[in-house]
């Protein structure tokens, strides 16, 4: 094979472009879920995630999670550069296993909550939040 300067330059620029691309956000979410659950597959039910369907301002999106009896809860924003938003841990003196906060969402994305139950099982809830710009549905 005959490599010209033009081909070598194209290969080099292509390699730089690939190296500059960020890792897929989905892989980061899967890694965070695996780290929290220890590789166990989360089930459904026993957890309630409350988030708006449409957020006019992605800077302050209210999110609430309720998982009666949970030991800990993790909240993830799948489309953010750093998907791990918060982890809440509940001790034996906790009156209820619920938490609410405001999170920042970079764009329209899924918000995921996973709760670790006392028996070592995990349950998951998910909600899609559409982030609009100036309330215009964008």
What is this entry, summarized?
By secondary structure, the chain is of the alpha+beta class. Helices cover 21% and strands 34% of the residues.
List the helices and strands and how they pair.
Blueprint (H helix, E strand, L loop, with lengths): L4 H16 L4 H13 L10 E3 L3 E2 L5 E6 L5 E6 L6 E6 L8 E6 L5 E8 L5 E10 L7
Parallel strand pairs: 2-8
Antiparallel strand pairs: 1-3, 3-6, 4-5, 4-7, 7-8
How far apart are the first and last residues' alpha carbons, in Å? Answer: 50 Å
Content of β-strand: 25-35%
Structural class: alpha+beta
Tell me which oligomeric state these chains represent: single chain
- Helix-strand sequence: HHEEEEEEEE
Number of helices: 2
What does the radius of gyration come to?
20 Å
Number of beta strands = 8
Placed side by side, the strands forming the largest sheet appear as 2-8-7-4-5
Structure write-up:
It is built from two helices and eight strands; from the N terminus they run ααββββββββ. By secondary structure, it is an alpha+beta fold. Strands 2-8-7-4-5 form a five-stranded mixed β-sheet, covered by helices on one side. Strands 1-3-6 form a three-stranded antiparallel β-sheet, with no helix packed on it. β7 (109-116) and β8 (122-131) form a beta hairpin. The longest helix has 16 residues, at 5-20.
